[in-house]
Specification:
Layout: H1 3-15, H2 18-25, H3 29-43, E1 48-51, E2 54-57, H4 59-84, E3 91-97, H5 99-116, E4 120-126, E5 140-143, E6 152-160, E7 162-167, H6 168-174, E8 187-191, E9 202-203, E10 206-207, E11 212-217, H7 220-228, E12 234-237, H8 239-243, E13 247-250, E14 260-267, H9 274-289
């Protein structure tokens, strides 16, 4: 079997469509269809059923899935290890993070990297989706959730308290919230459902059941920007008050039970590559200075 055919099989399984698989693999749809046909001919079985909901695996496809994913892990590991012997500080590094961490920490790190290592090119992917480093969707991730996979190197970069914040503009309009009133008469910003697992029915331990939801946001950058604009109050990690002086911490004695943690994650094979190690070291230095 040809590895490129297996890649096509996995891309169709993960996207559910020929067109989406082609986009993910940067191939044209004709090539994707041809490679799938080649693989099915080689295996002498149908791997997918085409339904109204997209391509779904047949029983034969389900049986082939584990082997295909194992081949993928081996191929990615081989590529990483082969790159690891290159000790030159040049080449591409893909980094995944959230938009807020990208603005507040990764961009300052990239400025330092450009000065120290001009031949390292860093591509930054900002998304709420946690990319799979085992499939090489990224070389490095800076995350707010600690991953559990055993083949990853995980390092905690920092942690901050999470407090309740608003601006003077907001307070002039709505006044200071009163403990025990469940934010009656106040507007709060929250995340859209599914964006974060940390969001509950309280803000720093106070029920928000009487509050008006001013906005449900799908990114951390939009969330903090919305609060900084004076449109609502909400929970933020306390480092942001040092970056954005318009933020005022309300009820400073109250905080969310769980701190805001930031983790640096990379695959064990990526750690062998000099350019990846260089990027990791600069990112860690920037977080230490903040």
């Amino acid at each position: 079997m040809i590895w490129d055919d297996i890649r096509v099989f996995l891309a169709i399984y993960r996207t559910g469509a020929i067109r989406d698989a082609a986009q993910r693999l940067t191939m044209d749809q004709t090539t994707v269809t041809r490679r799938l046909n080649n693989l099915e001919k080689t295996l002498d079985c149908k791997l997918f059923l085409r339904t109204q909901d997209g391509y779904i695996l047949t029983p034969a496809g389900i049986n082939a899935l584990d082997s295909a994913e194992r081949m993928e892990r081996d191929a990615v590991s081989f590529k990483r290890l082969s790159e690891g012997v290159n000790s030159e500080l040049c080449g591409d590094v893909v980094l995944a993070t959230t938009d807020t961490l990208a603005v507040d920490f990764i961009l300052p790190a990239l400025k330092i990297l450009r000065e120290k290592y001009p031949n390292i090119r860093v591509s930054v992917k900002t998304s709420t989706r946690i990319l799979d480093l085992s499939r090489r969707e990224a070389d490095i991730a800076v995350r707010t959730l600690r991953p559990e996979q055993g083949d990853l190197i995980v390092r905690r970069l920092t942690e901050w308290e999470v407090g309740l914040y608003a601006t003077q503009e907001y307070l002039d309009k709505y006044g200071m919230p009163v403990v025990g009133t469940h934010f009656a008469g106040h507007e709060v910003a929250i995340y859209q459902k599914g964006i974060t697992s940390r969001q509950g029915a309280t803000l720093v331990g106070e029920s928000r059941k009487e509050a008006k939801i001013a906005a449900e946001l799908d990114s951390s950058f939009m969330f903090s920007t919305f609060i900084c604009s004076g449109l609502a109050l909400g929970e933020l990690p306390d480092y942001q008050a040092t970056l954005y002086p318009e933020l005022i911490r309300l009820w400073p004695e109250k905080k969310r039970k769980k701190n805001y943690e930031v983790w640096l994650v990379m695959h064990t094979d990526s750690a062998q590559t000099a350019r990846v190690r260089a990027v990791v070291n600069v990112i860690a230095e920037v977080f230490e200075q903040k």
